Recover the amino acids of this structure.
């Protein structure tokens, strides 16, 4: 209905409408509207009625003063609502309760909105000019405010109680009218007129309190009666239901707040009791591999701030306990059994540790959704027990022995190529948990040397493969020496070919014995003790010849012969049949003495060969007291003593045509540990100097912690060791203490 | 005077400068020549009383003689203090220049006057600033070789007793006991030597409640601390 109205063909002389007169007319419209709202038989407004009402207002507002009644009409507009509310609406509401009251309220609110809509259309002209000119609230707002002030403010508390009662009813499993609640709560929202304050203050805050106390009661009884899995199931269900509740009738903004309350009462308050439940708590679930329950536990606690920390902690404790048990088992078996079976147990231990890791990694990835907290827990757990000693062997040594068993010929592990690759991969991963990585490297190197030099490596590809993996994990420096060793072997083969060519071209130089020499680059290989044994003349010639050859290839290099690593094939001319003996160079030297003399005393042999007692006893034992008795010992006691004498055992025989006479290896452990300790001292020195050179001045604690950090990739340095090195560096004038502050150090250029 | 010390082949440096307080006023030009000539005569006469005529220095024998004249034992700290005052470089020997330096500083020219001056000298040395310097000097004085920079345990024990015995009796007794039974160190470095002095000055004893293993105390003191704690338990 527009203003152009005035341009119509009604060329009426506008009579001035008196206020009372005009208002009476408006009242008829209002009364009609009320009747419609009350559901009384009343026809709807037609367009003429509507226009008349509108025009009346228009005219009364556009009349010349003193007959411009805008202000009065504005006031009467509000009074219309107030009157209706006081006489009809409020009484109707006050006489009802609970759900009935809610329904009435919804109806009355709906009616009110209709009334506002209609009346504001009738009085529209006021909205156009009057309210703007006087900066007054528009008609719509006036209407709503009436309802708010007269109805809402009176009743909202009672309404809130009724709603909450229904909510709790629904929680107890009864069906309720969700649409009704939605409509009621919409009132709270709408009455805020753009702000959520009414909803939040008059309803939500109470609802949250009530929900909290509801779940608090439930939780306190469930926690007593239910097992952990059952309690978690119920909690999960409750959270699901509450979310549905929000979706159906609460305002969406309530969701995070409600969820937080429920979580708090069910999961946070009783977290400790729940997780620590004796027979069904986190520990028990881990023990019994209850993957689903643990996944649920993760899901529930994941959204709670710091909720996962206790779970991760229990996980860590559990894995640590399992790991410790394995270690203890291996320790116990080792002390109860003989040395050689004990080493099998140690291999079994590594296998089991790998399996343990695989098992719990699955947990981390699947149950615990790859969460960093659990990766960390697993790592820390493994770091605890992977650094324990078993029967005197460090974990570094065990791991190196394990690798040796896989990589050597005739090792205890019989696996397919794929399985080997997979195992090597896992072994390298385990290395990450071992703090003494440098110790592992040294043991590994020693055993690699054995495999390479005695041709005991089962598969070249696997050897290279593990070196690649180690390089990836620990860096190039870690594997550079080992790679050098492997390369040396390849070069050695080429070298041998040249040597044979040389011999072919110089027949005079030929020593008359098949000689294979492997030249090792000193820096790559472990250091070997080698001392000057008096070689048999045949061998002396070999050494000379090779030296001659080698000088044709390179001058400026010194050859140091390591006889302890040599192998010799001798033909033993026994009475029954000749047998080829595969022995070490030292053993060969001993045996060859008997070519010239039948019988020799211990001392004879000692002086002729120029060996230490320890070594000689070992050698003679292997030839006279072990499985194959090539020499006869007099007296035939079980051990070698310095008063014994020896004779060639011509009667010796065996069903094989060739036998290998092993020399039990010297315990390398002590030397490895010594070498590593020495290297560590240098490494600490270097780290300290490096740090001080760049920082110039540094406090003691900082220096120590930076040192530890720098070295942590290879080993965990002992704080006392660092202090000792620092003092040494002070003595050597690399560092000095600050004159004022004895806890500060300066670098001396 | 402790004589023996162990050898090590390391770089030798002198991080602790040895100074003695020089309280001599500068004499005027003219009087200097006349007076100092006469003074020097006296000092040289005194020097010659004790010096070895062939070597031209006061040797250990001469020092013994001096000590008996001064009525002090040759292991008395006052002799060491005298050595410090004269900036003597070699243990057991006083050169002419060193002798003159000390006597000039002490303003004495006879043995009797020297004897009287010794208590004053001790007081001066015991002033905290001087004592730290003197303490460092004592260590260096015992090194018999240019290339040496540490002293054997036995000598250290004697030196500690002489130098710190009167002021830190308790600490010295316990530490000396410890040094004798431990096996980690056969010699003591300057850093460790100075560390012990700091220890005596800073750490309450015998409770050692303000000691911390986290700090930069020399390792030997950490070990001493742990040993003491074990004993006290």
């Amino acid at each position: 209905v527009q203003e152009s109205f005035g341009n119509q063909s009604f060329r009426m002389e506008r009579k001035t409408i008196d206020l009372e007169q005009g208002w009476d007319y408006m009242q008829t419209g209002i009364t009609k509207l009320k009747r419609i709202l009350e559901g009384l038989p009343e026809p709807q407004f037609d367009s003429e009625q509507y226009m008349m009402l509108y025009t009346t207002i228009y005219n009364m507002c556009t009349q010349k003063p003193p007959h411009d009644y805008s202000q009065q009409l504005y006031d009467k507009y509000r009074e219309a609502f107030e009157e209706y509310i006081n006489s009809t609406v409020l009484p109707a509401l006050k006489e009802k309760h609970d759900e009935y009251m809610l329904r009435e309220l919804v109806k009355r609110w709906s009616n009110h909105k209709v009334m506002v809509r209609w009346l504001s259309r009738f009085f529209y002209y006021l909205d156009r000019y009057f309210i703007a000119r006087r900066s007054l609230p528009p008609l719509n707002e006036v209407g709503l405010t009436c309802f708010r002030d007269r109805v809402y403010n009176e009743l909202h508390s009672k309404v809130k109680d009724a709603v909450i009662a229904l909510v709790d009813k629904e929680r107890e499993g009864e069906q309720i009218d969700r649409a009704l609640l939605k409509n009621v709560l919409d009132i709270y929202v709408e009455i805020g007129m753009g702000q959520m304050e009414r909803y939040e203050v008059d309803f939500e805050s109470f609802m949250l309190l009530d929900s909290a106390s509801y779940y608090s009661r439930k939780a306190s009884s469930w926690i007593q009666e239910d097992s952990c899995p059952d309690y978690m199931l119920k909690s999960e269900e409750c959270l699901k239901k509450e979310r549905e509740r929000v979706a159906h009738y609460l305002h969406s903004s309530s969701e995070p707040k409600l969820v937080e309350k429920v979580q708090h009462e069910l999961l946070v308050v009783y977290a400790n009791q729940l997780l620590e439940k004796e027979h069904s708590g986190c520990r028990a679930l881990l023990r019994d591999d209850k993957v689903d329950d643990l996944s649920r536990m993760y899901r529930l606690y994941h959204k709670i701030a710091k909720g996962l920390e206790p779970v991760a902690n229990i996980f860590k404790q559990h894995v640590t306990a399992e790991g410790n048990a394995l270690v203890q088992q291996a320790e116990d078996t080792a002390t109860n059994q003989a040395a050689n079976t004990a080493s099998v147990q140690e291999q079994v231990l590594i296998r089991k540790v790998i399996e343990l890791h695989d098992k719990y990694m699955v947990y981390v990835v699947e149950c615990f959704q790859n969460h960093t907290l659990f990766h960390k827990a697993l790592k820390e757990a493994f770091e605890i027990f992977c650094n324990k000693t078993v029967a005197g062997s460090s974990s570094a040594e065990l791991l190196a022995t394990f690798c040796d068993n896989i990589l050597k010929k005739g090792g205890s592990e019989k696996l397919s190529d794929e399985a080997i690759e997979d195992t090597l991969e896992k072994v390298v991963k385990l290395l990450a948990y071992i703090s003494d990585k440098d110790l592992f490297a040294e043991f590994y190197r020693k055993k690699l040397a054995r495999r390479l030099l005695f041709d005991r490596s089962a598969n070249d590809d696997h050897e290279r493969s593990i070196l690649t993996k180690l390089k990836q994990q620990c860096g190039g420096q870690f594997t550079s020496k080992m790679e050098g060793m492997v390369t040396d072997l390849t070069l050695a083969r080429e070298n041998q070919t040249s040597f044979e060519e040389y011999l072919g071209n110089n027949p005079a130089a030929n020593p008359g014995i098949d000689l294979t020499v492997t030249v090792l680059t000193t820096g790559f290989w472990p250091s070997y003790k080698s001392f000057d044994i008096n070689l048999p003349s045949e061998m002396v010639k070999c050494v000379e010849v090779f030296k001659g050859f080698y000088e044709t290839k390179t001058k400026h290099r010194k050859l140091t012969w390591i006889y302890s690593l040599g192998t010799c094939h001798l033909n033993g001319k026994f009475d029954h049949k000749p047998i080829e003996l595969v022995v070490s160079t030292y053993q060969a030297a001993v045996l060859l003495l008997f070519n010239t003399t039948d019988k020799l005393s211990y001392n004879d042999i000692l002086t002729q060969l120029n060996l230490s007692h320890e070594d000689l006893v070992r050698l003679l034992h292997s030839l006279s007291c072990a499985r194959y008795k090539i020499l006869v010992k007099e007296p035939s006691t079980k051990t070698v003593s310095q008063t014994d004498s020896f004779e060639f055992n011509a009667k010796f025989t065996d069903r094989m045509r060739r036998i290998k006479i092993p020399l039990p290896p010297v315990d390398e452990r002590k030397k490895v540990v010594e070498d590593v300790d020495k290297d560590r001292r240098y490494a600490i020195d270097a780290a300290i100097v490096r740090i001080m050179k760049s920082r110039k001045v540094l406090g003691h604690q900082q220096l120590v912690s930076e040192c530890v950090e720098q070295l942590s990739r290879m080993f965990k340095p002992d704080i006392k060791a660092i202090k000792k090195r620092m003092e040494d560096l002070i003595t050597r004038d690399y560092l000095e203490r600050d004159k004022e502050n004895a806890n500060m150090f300066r670098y001396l250029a | 005077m402790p004589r023996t010390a162990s050898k090590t082949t390391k770089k030798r440096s002198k991080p602790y400068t040895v100074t003695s307080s020089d309280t001599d006023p500068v004499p005027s030009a003219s009087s200097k020549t006349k007076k100092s000539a006469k003074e020097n005569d006296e000092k040289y006469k005194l020097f010659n009383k004790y010096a070895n005529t062939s070597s031209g220095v006061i040797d250990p024998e001469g020092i013994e003689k001096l000590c008996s004249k001064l009525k002090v034992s040759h292991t008395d700290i006052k002799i060491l203090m005298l050595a410090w005052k004269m900036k003597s470089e070699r243990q057991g020997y006083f050169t002419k220049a060193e002798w003159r330096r000390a006597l000039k500083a002490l303003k004495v020219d006879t043995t009797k006057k020297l004897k009287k001056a010794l208590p004053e000298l001790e007081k001066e040395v015991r002033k905290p600033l001087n004592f730290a310097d003197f303490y460092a000097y004592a260590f260096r004085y015992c090194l018999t070789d240019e290339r040496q920079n540490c002293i054997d345990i036995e000598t250290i024990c004697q030196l500690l007793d002489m130098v710190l015995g009167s002021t830190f009796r308790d600490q010295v007794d316990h530490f000396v006991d410890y040094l004798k039974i431990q096996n980690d160190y056969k010699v003591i470095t300057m850093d460790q030597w100075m560390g012990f002095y700091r220890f005596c000055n800073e750490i309450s004893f015998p409770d050692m409640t303000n000691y911390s293993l986290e700090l930069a105390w020399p390792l030997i003191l950490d070990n001493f601390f742990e040993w003491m704690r074990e004993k006290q338990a």
In short: The longest strand of chain A covers residues 567-573. Residues 139-171 of chain A form the longest helix (33 residues).
